[in-house]
Amino acid sequence: MSGPAATGALPATLTLVGAGKMGFALLQGWAARGLAGAGVTVLEPHPTKDVTALCTDRGFRLNPPVGQGPAPESLVLAIKPQMLESVAPSLVQRMAPGALVVSILAGKAVATIAARLPAATAIVRAMPNTPAAIGRGVTGAFANAAVSETQRRLAHALLASVGAVEWVESEELIDAVTAVSGCGPAYVFYFVEALAQAGAAVGLPADLAARLARATLIGSGELLHRSAGVSPETLRQNVTSPGGATAAALEVLMARQGLIELLARAAAAAKRRAGELSG
Ligand SMILES: NC(=O)c1ccc[n+]([C@@H]2O[C@H](COP(=O)([O-])OP(=O)(O)OC[C@H]3O[C@@H](n4cnc5c(N)ncnc54)[C@H](OP(=O)(O)O)[C@@H]3O)[C@@H](O)[C@H]2O)c1
Fold first, then answer.
1. Residue 256 and residue 154: Cα distance in Å, rounded?
2. What does CATH list as the number for 184-278?
3. Which residue, 64, 102, 114, 260, has most beta carbons within 10 Å?
4. Mutate which of 15, 21, 54 to test ligand 1's pocket (most atoms within 8 Å of Cβ)?
5. What's the 84 CA to ligand 1 centre distance in angstroms?
6. Ligand 1 site, CB within 6 A
7. What tens digit of pLDDT does each residue of 219-247 get?
8. In this predicted model, what pLDDT tens digit does every residue of 44-69 receive, in sequence order?
9. Tens digit of each residue's pLDDT (9 = 90 or more) over 76-99
10. What is the CATH number of domain 14-177?
11. Distance from the CA of 126 to the center of ligand 1, in angstroms?
């Protein structure tokens, strides 16, 4: 299965390990989709007020002792990647064999997760991106062969609560996903910085150039978002009159060694580095 899949129901029993930025975004997404009750366990050594309030409001168990509550059918790992080794032993008793493990840990291969969590066989490795914090992320996900169709739908539902989900059929492609959508928000923010600098270079006060660049990105992104079925190429052509000012700028951006080559090199560097870090 690749591309968007039908969003299934959220699991009734679930443990979230790590309620930091990304974990909390997921938790909020699940709560917004009606998840509630003591079947949900949140493990987080230093819960923020917001995490505690959400758990209280939805009846989730926050840091219950081992053995309290049902063994979850799904476990979502949202700790820092470097914490996996030290946290994994404490999870062994909290897992039923065969439970689905969904990991969003950057650079942690399925084989590494399986080695750290011996009870884990069905593993989904996912790479979300920062707009997940506002429910507008996109996550690339890979399921190993032990993940059943039902579990894949569960994982899809869990990840879809913070945005779109795209499945890849080989784990190596997660590094490529990282290079595009995982790192992509930083490219886009840098584009805004660069456009602001370009604005200053053509004579605008720096603060005005920064506001124009920011608003342009936000508005164009929203226009793209609302133009379902219209390609970015068509949207670009719609605002490019032959011989006009936009065309003059695009001629520079689209020249040989222009933006396409630059981004290709950037994405290749990100993919290479992601692969090295996954080691
Ligand atoms: N943020 C992103 O845009 C993004 C994108 C893609 C993937 N990811 C992945 O998402 C994961 C989380 O990233 P993040 O940005 O959300 O990091 P984060 O804010 O640092 O969240 C990690 C959370 O795990 C908690 N934790 C530490 N030890 C724990 C334990 N023994 N049991 C349970 N929880 C524990 C941490 O608590 P303390 O702070 O108290 O130690 C922290 O709240 C990372 O693996 C990252 O690779 C993030």
1. 45
2. 1.10.3730.10
3. 102
4. 21
5. 10
6. 17-23, 43-46, 78-81, 83, 87, 104-106, 127-130, 182
7. 999 999 999 999 999 999 999 999 999 99
8. 999 999 999 999 999 999 999 988 87
9. 999 999 999 999 999 988 888 889
10. 3.40.50.720
11. 14
Please choose, from the candidates 99, 186, 184, 182, the residue with its C-alpha nearest in 3D space to the C-alpha of residue 148: 99
What's the mean pLDDT in 165-192? 97
pTM (2 d.p.): 0.93
State how far the alpha carbon of 27 is from the alpha carbons of 88, 92, 109, 265, in Å: 21, 22, 23, 36
Give which of 45, 32, 35 is closest to 13, Cα–Cα: 35
Instruction: Say which range, 95-99, 104-108, 122-126, has the weakest mean pLDDT.
Output: 95-99
Residue 139, token pair as written in the block = 């996550």
Q: In whole angstroms, what is the distance from residue 231 CA to residue 236 CA? A: 9
| pLDDT on residue 156 | 97
Return the structure tokens found at 235. 């949207």
Measured CA to CA, the distance from residue 119 to residue 98 in angstroms comes to 7
Average pLDDT over residues 180-209: 98
The ligand 1 atom at the shortest distance from the C-alpha of residue 81 is: 45
Domain segments of the chain as ranges = 14-177, 184-278
185 closest CA partner among 124, 247, 139: 139
Q: What is the pLDDT of residue 68?
A: 82
Q: Which two tokens stand for residue 98?
A: 């065969």
- Give me the residue label for tokens 């995982």: 182
CB crowding 22-47: b at 16 or more within 10 Å, else e: bbbbbbbbbbeeebeeebbbbbbeeb
Domains 14-177 and 184-278 share a fold: no
Ligand 1 pocket test target in 44, 49, 142 with most atoms within 8 Å of CB? 44
